[in-house]
Design goal:
- This protein is mainly α.
- The protein has one domain (2-147): Serine Threonine Protein Phosphatase 5, Tetratricopeptide repeat.
- The protein is built from 8 helices and no strands.
- Helix 6 (99-111) runs antiparallel to helix 7 (115-128).
- The chain is globular and about 40 Å long.
- The protein starts with a helix and ends with a helix.
- 44% of the residues are buried.
Length: 148
C-alpha cells in the first residue's frame, strides 16, 4: 500500500512538468528554478541524494516554493516526517494554492496516521479543484489507508 501511495505522489508531482505548473505562483519571481538534475533524482526515486542536494538549494533559494515542495517529498520518502512537515509549510507559505504540495501534505498526514488532518487537506483540495486528479488521488489514498 505504501508503495502505491509513494508512486502516486511521484506521478502527480511530475505529470504536469514543472512542479508548480498547477496554477500556483511558485513563490517569488526572484527564485531560480530547481535544476533538472535535482528533479531527475526525485523522478528516479533517489530521495536521499535529492534531499541532501535540495537542502543546499533551498538555503540559496529560500523563496523557491518548488524547491521546498521537492525537499518535502524527499524528506517524506526518507522517513523524515517532522522535517517534511516543516518543508511543506514553507512551500505553502510561498504558494498556498499549490495543488501538488497540498496533495503531498495530505499524503504526509496519512504517513503520520493522522486521518483527521489528511481529510482536512482533502477538503482544502476540493475547494481548490473539486474533481482534479490531485483531489481524486488523495481521496482514493485516504480510502485505501482506511481499508488497510
Amino acid at each position: 500500500m505504501k508503495k502505491l501511495i509513494s508512486l502516486s505522489v511521484i506521478l502527480l508531482f511530475f505529470t504536469a512538468g514543472n512542479v508548480f505548473a498547477d496554477g500556483g505562483a511558485g513563490g517569488s519571481g526572484d527564485a531560480k528554478p530547481v535544476p533538472d538534475h535535482l528533479i531527475h533524482l526525485i523522478k528516479t526515486e533517489k530521495y536521499a541524494a535529492a534531499r541532501n542536494k535540495l537542502k543546499h538549494f533551498v538555503r540559496r533559494e529560500s523563496s523557491s516554493a518548488e524547491g521546498w515542495g521537492l525537499l518535502a517529498v524527499s524528506q517524506l520518502k526518507t522517513g523524515q516526517l517532522k522535517k517534511s512537515l516543516k518543508s511543506h509549510k514553507k512551500a505553502l507559505a510561498l504558494d498556498k494554492n499549490s495543488l501538488k504540495v497540498n496533495r503531498s501534505l495530505g499524503e504526509l498526514y496519512l504517513a503520520m496516521n493522522d486521518q483527521v488532518k489528511a481529510n482536512a487537506q482533502l477538503d482544502k483540495l476540493r475547494k481548490l479543484c473539486q474533481d482534479c486528479e490531485h483531489t481524486i488521488s488523495l481521496a482514493s489514498d485516504i480510502q485505501n489507508h482506511q481499508n488497510s
